[in-house]
Structures are given as structure tokens and as C-alpha cells.
User: Fold this.
Amino acid sequence: MMTATRRSDTKSEILDIAERYWLRQGYNGFSYQHIAQDLGVKSAAIHYHFPAKGDLGVALVERMRRRFVRWAERTDAEIVGFWPRFDAFVAIYEAYLDDGKKLCPSGILDAEYHTIPEGMQEAAHGLTTAILRWLTRALRAGRDAGEVSFNGEPEGAAIVVGATLQGAVQIARSLGRDAFHTTVEHLKKLLHP
Assistant:
């Protein structure tokens, strides 16, 4: 009989493997068979933990959202000033390039939005909202402190920054990391007062 700890470990392993596939190939680019093969189990073992692929997808997105929220709380508590926080935020996206040219989760979700299950769409909205709320707060505080300048409301600037970084990660897959760094440098120039 499988113990609760072993079930939890297996569930975490499933999520880890699914995340690797997801960030490289997108949600539609892998199946339970891929995960089962990597784990050395039958697909039924995956269904035990996640009855439908949509359940797995929601768990992945929620995991990413929780991870981002923890990052944001830690960053806000430990890092002072807009530019150091911005650099920490950019480092999240750069890490996807460092780890086998993965895509960022929100970029994948936005690209596949109309092909993912409704529950995943709701979870995707939650992840994107968490990211944009943090960016909005950071941009507002940065402008109030005179560290950053932009036209319009911080909410709009947050969308521009987030979309630009998502696009930079995607372009860097084919053009190389210099394209990512060039995009970041231009974004910084646009935001400097």
C-alpha cells in the first residue's frame, strides 16, 4: 500500500516532470504517457493524482502563482529601490533562458489560452494578475521615488513591461540571448527618468 508521504512525493515528481515538459513544449506538447515514461510507471498512476490533464494544468499554474507570490514577498522585504527589484524581476525571465531555453509560464499560457481547459484559463488569469499587480506596485513606487518615468498609469506600464519580457524570452529562443539583453537594455532606457 502506498503511504501518504510516497503519494505526496509521486505527486511532486509528476508536477516537476510536467513543468519541464510544459516550459519547453507548452501544455499541448506533452501527454501523461510522456510523464509516465519518465517516472517509469503506467499512465494510470498519473491519473490517480490528476484525473484529467486539466487538473494537472491547474496544479502547475497554481504552483507557479504561489512561487511568484513568495518571490514577490521576499523581494519586497529584502530589496530596496525600483532598479534592484526590476533586475531581480528580469532575472526570473533570464533563468528560463539559462535552463534550456524554456518559455516563461505566463507567455505559454497567453499563447495557448484558447486551447487550454477553462480551469487553466482561470488559473492563468490568477498568475498574470499576480505578476501585473506586483509590477504595478513596483512601477508606482519607483515613479513616486523619482527612480523611473513613464507616460500613463502604472497598470498600463506594467502590461508593457510584462509583455516585453515575455516576448524577449520567446525571441531569444531563435535569435539567442543577446536579443533578450538588447530588449532589456532598451526597456531600461525607456523607463529611466
